[in-house]
Amino acid sequence: MKNSYYKIGGIFFGLMLTAVSSNTKAQTRTISGTVTSSNKPLVGVTISQQGSDQVTTTSENGTYTLKVSAENPILVFRHADYSEERIRANNQKVINISLKENVKGIEEVILNAGYYKVKDKESTGSIARVSAKDIENQPVNNVLSAIQGRMPGVSITQNSGTAGSGFDVKIRGRNSLRSYATTGYDGNKPLYIVDGVPLPQVNDFNSGMSASVLPYNDTNPLNAINPDDIESLEVLKDADATAIYGSKGANGVILITTKKGKKEKPEVNLRTSYGLGDMTNQPKMMSLEEYTNMRKLAFANDRVAVPSNAYDINGVWNPTKTTDWQKYFVGNHSEISDVQLGVSGGSGNTQFSISGGHNEETTVFPGSYRYKRNNLGVNISHTSADKRFQIGFNGTASLQDNVLPPTDFNLIYTVLAPNAPDLYMPNGMINWENSTFTNPMGPATQTYSIKTKSINANLNSSYKLGSGLSINVNSGYSAYNSFEQKIFPKTTYNPSSNIGSSSSSLRKAQKLNESWILEPQLNYEKRSDKHQFAALLGASLQEQKSDNIVILGRNFPSDDLLTNMAAAATITIPSAYESLYRYQAVYARFNYGYNKRYFINLTGRRDGSSRFGSERRYANFGAVGAAWLFSEENLFEGQSWLSFGKLRTSYGVAGNDQIGDYQYFDTYQSTGGSYGGNSGLVPQRLYNKNFGWELTRKFEAALELGMFSQRLNLNIGYYQNTSSNQLVGIPMPATVGFSSIQANLDATVRNRGLEVSLESVQIKTDHWRWTTSLNFTLPENKLISFPDLEKSTYANKFEIGKSISLVKLYQYKGIDPSTGLYTFFDTNQDGIINAADRTVSKEIKEYWYGGLQNSIQYKNWNFDLLLQFVSQSQYNLKSMYGNIGYMSNMPAVFNDYWTPDNPNAEFQRPSAGYSAPAATASSLFMLSDATVSDSFTVRVKNATLTYNIPSADKGKLKARVFMSGQNLFVFTNYKGGNPEFMLAGYSSPLRVVSFGVSLTY
After folding, report:
1. Is 132-260+329-362+371-406+446-805+844-882+926-1000 a domain of CATH 2.40.170.20?
2. Contact by Cβ (8 Å): 510, 548
3. Per-residue pLDDT tens for 843-868?
4. What is the CA angle 916-920-922, rounded to 5?
5. Where in the chain is the domain with CATH 2.40.170.20?
6. Do the Cβ atoms of 85 and 97 come closer than 8 Å?
7. Do the beta carbons of residue 681 and residue 670 sit within 8 Å?
8. Other CB atoms closer than 10 Å to residue 190's CB: what's the count?
9. The pLDDT of residue 804 is above 80
10. Given the DSSP bridges, would you call strands 191-194 and 253-258 parallel, antiparallel or unpaired?
């Protein structure tokens, strides 16, 4: 593959070196003038000659000077906040113009499509955009929290309310059968790109230390990116938009552009905020009286006298003392503080921006747990005097330090009886209550910490050769290094067990990931009166290295030395892993527009990945997109109600290589022990040279309308993605010695759906402005085909015609009136309820989801309100709690248990664990269809009130104060935590209310 790198790079650079630009010098003349708006000069307006490289910008007093060629040149005046104007300069030497300020509608929005930029008006693909205005002032650590509910076709779920946790991001559904639930590895993650540099997938190797506090041991690469540094975020969804990224764009692409220096005068920005967070949607727990009655009845139902170890009801523990353990463990306030400082400016052709910040967040748990992040952002750009050469550097760095308990305390409070003893004695020692109490604060002394260092740097340069031809070289470097530590002190155990420091241990893990990318490009643009051309030819060379290790130290002389690995008498390495991933591609794009109304976009790419066998390493991908601006036709001329109308469609094929490294090799693993001084090797996989790409075919058709001078904008789109050649393990006979072989399975997954977005401007006056945005997605995910599914080991995980997020469950029949126990349908009528009877299919899926945003502005006041809503099938509270009657508290809804006086109860009779039939029925109930139900949730995702403080005589200092709330209220028929995340027991996203001030000088 190394030679292939050289060949592709050599061919491409040869093309650039042989590109010759010969310009015939024509007569030139100078045009000057002033650009204003509302009788005020405009600075930063770009003036260019159509079809030429001549370009300039207005100064502070709005004046400009431009050299033009040709007899009757067309001058184009552009500014991001004003309407574009084109004027034909016949014999004028002075052209003064006034630009109209407008709502930034589809005419003016410039979309970042990755390797190129395109006007939203002329775009043939599906690209959703969120700007800095929607992100700023929100009390979030990860920008994904700020964009939830703002985009159609983009489903974002926060896995936990604990700082540093991950997100489940689905762009138009799940294409791959590989998920955490089925294979332990998610093959549906989108591609994250920051300033042209792909972020490494940092969860390919897990130490396993954080599983009890961070779901799936999962974090997110965007945790390292400061939301305040983001200028815009674009999501590429359809084939036309993602095809330029080939296989990497199969699951969608999230592009992040950081803020750049824009003004020539230096500007200093300071933003600081402080907020408090707490848990939402917590279930009400049983009172002491309700709990005691349940426990006593449980022993009576089991026909067992209250034993000596039932300390909660036999009088050993205080029968009248009660503690709200839910409030103690997860009812505290989390403190969130944030300080960001930025300086930007420039002189002449050079602009710069430097930002730095510090963020801290505590938890709602008892204890001094804390997340810290320090970030630095640098941007420098320079343009040569003749405007031909441009070079820019973007860099972000982040240091994260997260100290957490070993387990999410949301999993702990339910295991305690309401009258359990105090956790600590008066002297501050952990209370074991004479060995009658298993104190959860003992295991809680096992502190987990993780420190991460990340760098993302990009250097981009371009040179205009002339006649619309330019070369561009994009290079980037990214590093993500994490250092985990978990201590297991002797305080974990009851001192009466006489377990000392010899049983203490220290576990450390180190993950080092770094990658580089080099992308040379050749660009061509040409415009005439009715024709416009844009072409791009590029290559991509990428390499990612990973070095991971876990070290375990045991048998310490003292817990005082527990953080020093060198003090351990025994040191072992449970796991170590190194990998090298190489990726290369050549790609091309051709775009043609005719008469400002017909557009076609062709994209092709050939990818090579080191993750596949020698016979299937390379593949070709591509897409075609087309758009028709029918509002430009003569038929609609003079129609005042129609401001903009566009039909677009696209079709293409993308690949997927999110399988991990070396999956096609015949790999071996150390036995970890030794025999005769030698360690052994155990085979792990079989070699498969034909192991190749997962394929996704994407189709979309959409209608975009702007009506009544764009006071009402409507977008409707239909998409269908079909994924085949699934990268999963194919089951093998046991006689082979391997349970499966990594290969391409001839299974097909289809995602299709309807996306609708509506924007309206209800009020627009000098002092009032009220806008509304609504987005709605109706998704469908189905397994279309799977050869011999019934005979495979996947028969209990998938079903043809159903969602791939599917569970097989027992069919619940109700409570037997004679026994008071749960009953279930015996599918095969063999008189035994076992795994063979788990035949009821329940889909864990979203029926529809969306968001509604309202923004009201009155003079210097601005109020934004965002509602997020989802209708879904999800696990319910019954799946989280087992038998009723054990020594642990339960939600109050479980008070509705069966008794002879309550025969129509929802839950079976309590049992203290001495009745085998009751325990079996309870276990089956947690795996029955009663634990899955439909839910509807409306979340007040964000509400922000901002006031811009008027400055005296329009001084240099601008001040703004704001109050913002995140996850303020949750209205749902789901009881028991996070209604959007299926993994039980973890903390819900926090309700956060923050206050802040922003100063600009």
Report:
1. yes
2. yes
3. 999 999 999 999 999 999 999 999 99
4. 120
5. 132-260+329-362+371-406+446-805+844-882+926-1000
6. yes
7. yes
8. 20
9. yes
10. parallel
